[in-house]
Specification:
There is one protein chain. This protein is mainly alpha-helical. It has a single domain, classed as Cytochrome Bc1 Complex, Chain D, domain 2 (Orthogonal Bundle). About 80% of the residues lie in helices and about 0% in strands. It is built from five helices and no strands.
Length: about 80
């Protein structure tokens, strides 16, 4: 996972592939966003940011409440679906 997180473009590509796989497996957008929230929580607690983009996301995550964090997670899912 550390290689994936070292470059933000690589992380977005990795996340996009996982979102695509989840959709093919029949997961709903809500389920995918919930999983993205759980992953975001894990990363916040266990992984140090590896680049500037991740540092900004962590700062936003840290100041947000649960609802705002869920919005960040959903927006990350949308972002990777557009690339």
């Amino acid at each position: 996972m550390s290689t994936v997180l070292s470059n933000f473009a690589t992380w977005k590509h990795f996340l996009a592939e996982r979102v695509s796989q989840a959709k093919k497996a029949g997961m709903t957008e809500d389920t995918i966003s919930s999983l993205a929230y759980e992953i975001g929580s894990f990363l916040d607690e266990k992984v140090d940011p590896k680049n500037e983009e991740e540092r900004v996301l962590k700062q936003l995550w840290d100041v947000g409440d649960e609802s705002e964090r869920k919005t960040i997670a959903a927006l990350m899912v949308k972002l990777v679906q557009k690339t």
